[in-house]
Design brief:
Blueprint (H helix, E strand, L loop, with lengths): L1 E10 L2 E11 L4 E5 L6 H8 L7 E6 L2 E2 L8 E4 L11 H11 L4 H14 L15 H13 L5 E5 L7 H16 L3 E5 L3 H7 L2 E6 L2 E7 H7 L4 E7 L11 E9 L2 E8 L5 H8 L4 E7 L4 H12 L1
Parallel strand pairs: 3-8, 3-9, 6-7, 7-8
Antiparallel strand pairs: 1-2, 1-4, 4-5, 9-10, 11-13, 11-14, 12-13
Helix pairs in contact: 2-3, 2-4
Length: 301
């Protein structure tokens, strides 16, 4: 749906984006990741037509991105932008009409979302009367009310308690099921694993990693396992097919963190251990996206 091709963006003496190319599949949830100052917000502003790149281009369904595409985008910025002294209901209707809806259709859809999120009592309240989390809910309605083809969500869970974060997460997934493509920028790596099909990781203005979440995690597998068993402490001698990384004793039994040696397999570990102990669990430790994020960014700095 979105093709980002060789984007360069310079601000005075700072290069915010340096030859960044990304492909975002239609109907998928795409995570745009990176530490502070990596270039994520600059790229989001370019996709939204808020700023223009110095070179490169963005395509929307094969067409060069232009202002005609903005009605098909819903953008939830990290810095919220609702008018603090305007009544919420009127504000939602106004923003929906800016996206091309008639006032009648805007009112119908606003009623649907206010009821769904249980915020009907807020219609005549002003933004400044609401907590940060409540303001966030109102901003979310303004983002999705025109049923955009592309949703761009920059830190969408900021200000939410765990219950409301779960509600909004489920709404994002439901919109995606109905066909919306989602670009999701966050520092919460657990949300990436829950929500995203693919990611791109930016650091110091460059793309340093991209691909499907499952494929990336598999690429970073390093033969590390957790073994839970009953029995005494294991003295892995030179003939053991693994190296012990750590060993702890709990009420449930012994926990051994190990790394399988080069050229050896899981079956070799089992054959070595079965005569010695009673095994309850052997589970591979696949690196989390948070661990991969830290490892990859640290290498490049």
């Amino acid at each position: 749906m979105i093709s980002i091709r060789h984007i360069v963006k310079q601000y005075a003496g700072h290069r915010a984006l340096d030859d960044v190319s990304i492909e975002i599949e239609k109907g998928k949830v795409f995570g745009l990741l990176g530490p502070n100052g990596a270039g994520k917000t600059s790229l989001i502003r370019i996709i939204n037509q808020i700023t223009a790149p110095d070179s490169g281009e963005v395509l929307f369904n094969g067409q060069k991105m232009s202002q005609i595409h903005t009605e098909r985008i819903g953008y939830l910025p990290e810095e919220r932008g609702l008018y603090k002294k305007m009544e919420i209901g009127e504000q939602i209707l106004y923003l929906a009409q800016l996206k091309g809806l008639t006032r009648l259709e805007a009112r119908k859809r606003a009623k649907y979302w206010f009821e769904k999120l249980e915020i009907t009592s807020w219609w005549n309240k002003k933004i400044e009367e609401l907590s940060k989390g409540m303001q966030q809910k109102a901003q979310f309605v303004a983002t999705v009310i025109h049923e955009p083809e592309l949703l761009i969500l920059d830190e969408p869970f900021t200000g939410f308690d765990p219950v409301n974060a779960e509600i909004i997460k489920n709404e994002i997934l439901e919109l995606n099921k109905k066909g919306a493509t989602v670009i999701f920028s966050t520092h919460r790596m657990e949300s990436v694993e829950e929500l995203c099909d693919s990611i791109a990781l930016l650091n110091l203005s460059k793309k340093i990693l991209d691909g499907k979440v499952k494929t990336i995690r598999n690429t970073y597998r390093n033969g590390t396992y957790i073994l839970e068993y009953d029995g005494g402490k294991i003295n892995a001698d030179g003939g053991a097919p693994f190296t012990v990384l750590s060993e702890t004793a709990t009420d449930e039994g012994q926990h051994l963190k190990l790394r399988i040696n080069a050229g050896r397999k899981v079956n070799d570990v089992l054959q070595y251990m079965l005569p010695l102990v009673s095994i309850h669990r052997l589970e591979e430790v696949v690196p989390t996206m948070n661990e991969i994020f830290i490892q990859t960014v640290s290498k490049k700095n």
